[in-house]
UniProtKB/TrEMBL annotation:
NCBIfam families: PRK05255.1-1 (NF003593). CDD domains: YjgA-like. It holds the Pfam family DarP. It comes from Pseudoalteromonas lipolytica. Its main location: cytoplasm. The gene is darP. GO terms for molecular function: ribosome binding; rRNA binding. One of its GO terms (cellular component) is cytosol. SUPFAM superfamilies: PSPTO4464-like (SSF158710). This is Dual-action ribosomal maturation protein DarP. Belongs to the DarP family. Member of a network of 50S ribosomal subunit biogenesis factors which assembles along the 30S-50S interface, preventing incorrect 23S rRNA structures from forming. Promotes peptidyl transferase center (PTC) maturation. It is found in: Cytoplasm.
Length: 173
C-alpha cells in the first residue's frame, strides 16, 4: 500500500510588535476613560454589557481616589478588549460628541438659505419649496418679502428672524 502524501500546511504567521500591542491597549484605556467621564444618562444610551456597567459604577465610586480609579480604568480597558461591540460603542460616542458640530453645520446652511432667499426673492422660493415640501408657498413669499423690506429699510429684523425660524422648523423635521 502506498503512503498518502499529506498536503503541506502553510500557516501565515502575523507578527504584531510590542509597540502595536501597547498602542492598542492605550486606545482601549482611552475609550474606557472617555466612557467613565461621561454622564450617566449618556452612558445609558451606549450598548454596554453588564460587566462594563458594573465596572463603571465602581469607577464613579472611586473617582476621587487616583490609584483606585486608575486600576479600575485598567480593568475597564481589559473588559473592552474582550467586548465584541467596541466599534458600535465607539460609533455611538462619536455621534454623541459630534452632535453639536452637525447642528452648527445645519444652522449655517439654514442661515445661508435665508440670506439667499432675501437676495434672490421669488427665483429661489420655488426650488426651495420643491426641496422641502413642508414649506407653504404663500407664507414663504410673505416672509421673504417682509424680510427684504426690513433689510432695505434697516429696520429691526423681526421677519428676518421669523423666516429663519420657519425654515429651521421645516428643515429640521
Amino acid at each position: 500500500m502506498a503512503k498518502k502524501k499529506k498536503p503541506a500546511i502553510e500557516e501565515e504567521i502575523i507578527y504584531v510588535s510590542k509597540s502595536e500591542l501597547k498602542r492598542e491597549a492605550m486606545q482601549y484605556h482611552d475609550l474606557g476613560a472617555e466612557i467613565a467621564g461621561m454622564a450617566k444618562k449618556q452612558r445609558d444610551r451606549l450598548p454596554l454589557n453588564d460587566e462594563l456597567k458594573e465596572a463603571l459604577v465602581v469607577a464613579d465610586k472611586v473617582s476621587d481616589k487616583s490609584d483606585a480609579y486608575r486600576r479600575n480604568l485598567n480593568y475597564i480597558a481589559k473588559v473592552l478588549r474582550t467586548t465584541e461591540n467596541v466599534d458600535e460603542i465607539q460609533a455611538m460616542i462619536d455621534i454623541m460628541l459630534n452632535k453639536n458640530n452637525q447642528a452648527d453645520v445645519l444652522m449655517n446652511k439654514i442661515e445661508k438659505l435665508r440670506d439667499d432667499l432675501i437676495k434672490q426673492g421669488d427665483d429661489l422660493i420655488n426650488p426651495t419649496i420643491e426641496q422641502y415640501p413642508s414649506l407653504e408657498r404663500q407664507k414663504m413669499r410673505q416672509l421673504v418679502r417682509n424680510a427684504t423690506k426690513e433689510v432695505k429699510a434697516e429696520k429691526p429684523a423681526k421677519s428676518y428672524k421669523e423666516l429663519f425660524q420657519y425654515l429651521k422648523d421645516a428643515i429640521m423635521v
